[in-house]
Write a structure and sequence with these properties.
Layout: H1 3-35, E1 42-45, E2 50-56, E3 60-66, E4 69-74, E5 78-82, H2 84-91, H3 119-122, H4 132-135, H5 144-152
Antiparallel strand pairs: 1-2, 1-5, 2-3, 3-4
């Protein structure tokens, strides 16, 4: 066999090796993150639930999902271990970086006036009807090219 025939197979095997190596590194990093969990840290499960770690066993972890509500999860179901600031920001709404103190209302009721304004006072009336000059056909001179187009469209005189 020639080298040209073997080259695609060599490239394919090399690519598979690199992908497998990358996946193994990610798995090892996730396992290390799960092993570094301590009771009291905030976590996010792979399902998107935020909770606090209460106890850690060999393959399971006891999470407090709400005050006084505990659930047992597999260690593999922990998607991320969060630092305290991020966990408090997400779960409790604590924001260290308050912007300019602007308060956004929960509903649109505060955005409208209490008393309805008279519509005739502030709104200019818009006439959506045709103007008289647009409705009547204009008298224009027809050139030869326009006559050909009109006959092609079936608008010519039927004799």
């Amino acid at each position: 066999m020639s080298l040209v025939t073997l080259l695609p197979f060599i490239v394919l095997i090399g690519a598979m090796f690199l992908m497998t190596r990358s996946a193994k590194k990610k798995q090892q990093a996730a396992a290390q993150m799960r092993n570094d969990m301590q009771p009291g840290t905030g976590v996010r499960t792979i399902g998107g639930m935020y909770a606090t770690v209460k106890e850690i066993q060999e393959d399971t972890v006891l999470l407090e999902v709400a005050p006084g509500v505990h659930a047992v999860y597999a260690k593999n179901s922990i998607g991320a271990v969060l630092d305290d600031a991020e966990y408090n920001r997400i779960v409790h709404g604590d924001d260290e970086h308050e912007s300019d103190g602007t308060i956004v209302p929960d509903d649109a009721s505060s955005l409208i006036a209490d008393e309805p304004a008279d519509a005739d006072d502030d709104v200019a009336k818009i006439d959506l009807g045709k103007k008289a000059e647009d409705a009547a056909p204009k008298d224009t001179e027809v050139t030869g090219a326009e006559t050909k187009d009109a006959k092609a469209d079936g608008e010519g005189d039927a004799k």
